[in-house]
Write a structure and sequence with these properties.
Elements (H helix, E strand, L loop, with lengths): L2 H68 L1
Length: 71
């Protein structure tokens, strides 16, 4: 007769453990998602900087070509 209350307690303990594991997994996913978002922002800024540098180099090349053709 004592088995049923023990089963219920065990069920509640296991349910709490499961909830805690799910909560921890969600927190880990959230941390990874935030980290990935920060990396995407950094990469976007780096790409913008590289694009600006490419544009500046293209302008320099075009000026050189124009000077070279004129002389």
């Amino acid at each position: 007769m004592h088995i049923h209350p023990m089963q219920e307690r065990l069920h509640h303990v296991l349910a709490r453990m499961h909830d805690a594991q799910v909560h921890e997994a969600i927190e880990q996913l959230n941390d990874v998602t935030q980290s990935n978002a920060a990396l995407v922002e950094e990469n976007t800024a780096a790409v913008k900087t590289l694009d600006d540098q490419v544009q500046a180099l293209r302008q320099q090349i075009n000026r050189f070509k124009l000077r070279h053709v004129r002389t």
